[in-house]
Design goal:
Elements lengths: L1 H8 L3 H4 L2 H15 L2 H4 L18 E5 L10 E5 L4 E5 L10 E5 L2 E5 L11 E5 L4 E5 L10 E5 L2 E5 L11 E5 L4 E5 L11 E4 L2 E4 L1
Antiparallel strand pairs: 1-2, 2-3, 4-5, 5-6, 6-7, 8-9, 9-10, 10-11, 12-13
Helix pairs in contact: 1-3
Length: about 200
């Protein structure tokens, strides 16, 4: 950011000819020269993280049981306070892991009413369409799922006979799953959260 401010922004005619713009540029340069811990102490409208106004705030509910596994997917718009049906899953699914990664929604594993599955499907909101991608190495329902450093992690779960300690990661750029270090304990119905660049299980 500092190089961009000096080499590009500072050379813009609008910046050079407007004192208010110059003041903002100087403020930005000073901000980027500070160590990270000192930057965090500066609180004003220009240092506040922005939320893109063009992206709607929505919640997607994928599959479930009613009372058997279902394909239904619904979307809740917080601004409109309204539920809408969107494209159904390719197959019945409950107890799946669901994450948002690289602009798409992933439904990972789950239970189809008869078997725990390895299936993974991806929802593209622009096309309102689900697409099946590479399956996991192991069948998993009631698994934990999280995204860290552009990898999707499938953690633990239940394969139909026992709880799992294994963990898999998915690289969407090459459409491949691979095993990573297993947990020390078998876990089903596990929660996963990402904090400061690490996956935490609970």
């Amino acid at each position: 950011p500092r190089d961009y401010l000096v080499q590009t922004v500072e050379e813009e005619a609008l910046i050079k000819n407007n004192n208010t713009c110059k003041d903002f540029l100087i403020e930005a340069m000073k901000y980027h020269l500070l160590p990270l811990d000192q930057r965090q102490l500066i609180k004003n409208p220009r240092t506040k993280p922005r939320t893109p106004v063009s992206l709607p705030k929505i919640m997607i509910v994928v599959g479930g049981q009613a009372p058997k596994a279902i394909r239904s997917v619904e979307c809740y718009d917080f601004e409109e306070e309204r539920w809408d049906q969107i494209a159904e899953l390719p197959s019945r699914r409950c107890r799946a892991g669901v994450v948002f990664m690289a602009g798409k929604v992933y439904a990972v594993g789950g239970f189809n009413g008869s078997l725990r599955v390895r299936t993974v499907d991806v929802y593209d909101a622009v096309k309102d369409q689900w697409t099946s991608i590479a399956s996991m190495q192991e069948r998993r329902s009631t698994l934990g799922a999280a995204v860290l450093n552009e990898l999707l992690y499938a953690v633990g779960g239940f394969d139909g006979s026992t709880g799992l300690a294994s963990v898999e990661a998915y690289n969407y750029k090459v459409n491949e799953w691979f095993f990573v270090a297993p947990m020390n304990t078998r876990r089903s119905s596990v929660g996963v959260g990402v904090v400061e660049g690490k996956n935490f299980l609970f």
